[in-house]
Amino acid sequence: MRQLGIEGAWVDTPRVFTDDRGRFHEWFKDDTFRGSTGQGLHLAQGNCSRSVRGTLRGIHYASVPPGQAKYVTCVSGAVLDVVVDIRTGSPTFGRWEAVRLDDSTHNCVYLSEGLGHAFMALEDDSTVVYLCSQGYAPQREHGINPLDPMLAIDWPGHLEPRLSEKDAAAPTLADAERQGLLPSLKDCTAYRGGLVENAR
Fold first, then answer.
1. CATH number at residue 144
2. 174, 150 contact by CB (below 8 A)
3. What whole-number percentage of the chain has pLDDT above 70?
4. How many structural domains does the chain have?
5. 117 is catalytic
6. pLDDT at residue 200 above 70?
7. Strand 22-25 to strand 9-12: parallel, antiparallel, or no bridges (unpaired)?
8. Which of 61, 110, 130, 191 is catalytic?
9. What is the mean pLDDT of residues 53-59?
10. Is residue 130 annotated as part of the catalytic site, yes or no?
11. Which range of residues forms the domain containing residue 115?
């Protein structure tokens, strides 16, 4: 696994075995994950999302603690997966990083608690599956508008973004900060520190 430029986020490119019958790869390995992150991945929920071309989902995050870490991959089609640092007090606050996830490279992205997550489907029937450290809890779920001009995420210009009403109405990063909705780096670091300690 390779750490991204945002602390708490990694990308993994698994080895893919191909023969005349098809392909095989291990899309999650606990020992590799622990070796890179220093902790295990508590699995509370697994999600599967299928999207038409141009669908833009996110930016989503959950209150910390406990937050919701995600391990994400695309099993069919292709998406542009984006991690956003929304943690107040972080030296990379407001920064984002994008990774293409598709059914040929089989890249996976892990984002720890307190980071924002979004993706855009680059093809029809793009299917994303992700493992979550916590189950869905509506009272803890939040969003930031993925078209926030201050974030200026470089979504593919040839695609018309298709957002849910909820995502389109989400506040900007600045508004979410003013409303006290964002997690702090301090709280995220303390929570993750406990996970690392418990993994020993």
1. 2.60.120.10
2. yes
3. 99
4. 1
5. no
6. no
7. unpaired
8. 130
9. 98
10. yes
11. 2-199
